[in-house]
């Protein structure tokens, strides 16, 4: 349960911070956090804010299309630019710090876009809860001078969902989404084929009506993590058979359902936390 008064006060802090900005470029993925940041920034700055979304192999096409539609609906200028993570050796090697190099590359492109348009400030939508997990990409963004206004306002995920609902944003209850590379165990090379396989597998499950899930790619094995409300669907005979058939078409030899269910960042358990 969140403290509603505190959440609204934090939004006031965010608005005050935004109001002081001459112009702003928001790194916009279309997720709950970036949609809230972009909508609040647009309400505050109007035509002084611009959104930028990467067209990337690590970003599901469905997410990109939803981001485009969201930006169109609120009326903000929106730039979609190409991003090729397959050209980053540290990323494709799938090192524990892959997100650092990915975010570094992305930040470089955002800086170029901002410079071309005379935009003074660039922001991304990390929130205070993100700091509790291993997120090397946040460090890279900071080093590149990208700010995180939601962190500065001390806003957490549930507060952002509540405030988004108050604002009437359709994204308020959108399931959390992460880079497709997060489905592949650290140390296992990332390929475009693997990313496309994961995307196709998850798209299939979403079309079945499931909402919160991940398909972890363990070579010949697909490990499905499903949220509490979706978990039981896999015990329906028709759903089970359709999933097995489709996943085998995609190249998986074995299809498993993780009994723990959906766990954001579960792949990070293999890292040396020290």
Offer a quick outline of the entry.
This protein is α/β, with parallel strands linked by helices. It contains 11 helices and 7 strands.
What does this structure look like?
With 274 residues, the protein is α/β, with parallel strands linked by helices. It has 11 helices and 7 strands. It has helices at residues 4-19, 32-45, 61-74, 89-92, 98-117, 136-143, 149-152, 157-166, 192-207, 228-231, 237-249; strands at 24-27, 49-56, 77-83, 121-123, 213-218, 221-226, 254-257. Helix 1 (4-19) packs across helix 2 (32-45), helix 1 packs across helix 8 and helix 2 runs parallel beside helix 3. The chain is globular and about 55 Å long.
Tell me the series of helices and strands, N- to C-terminal.
HEHEHEHHEHHHHEEHHE
Main β-sheet: number of strands, strand sense, barrel status?
4 strands, parallel
Q: Would you identify the CATH architecture of the largest domain?
A: 3-Layer(aba) Sandwich
CATH topology of the largest domain: Rossmann fold
Structural class: alpha/beta
Helix segment tally:
11
- In round numbers, the mean pLDDT is 95
Reading side by side through the largest sheet, how are the strands ordered? 3-2-1-4
Q: CATH superfamily name of the largest domain?
A: HUPs
- Into which percent range does the helicity of residues fall? 40-55%
Radius of gyration: 19 Å
Number of domains: 2
Q: Rough shape?
A: globular
Cα distance, first to last residue?
Answer: 32 Å
Strand content: 5-15%
**Which CATH C-level class of the largest domain is it?**
Alpha Beta
Report the count of strand segments. 7
Uncertain stretches = none
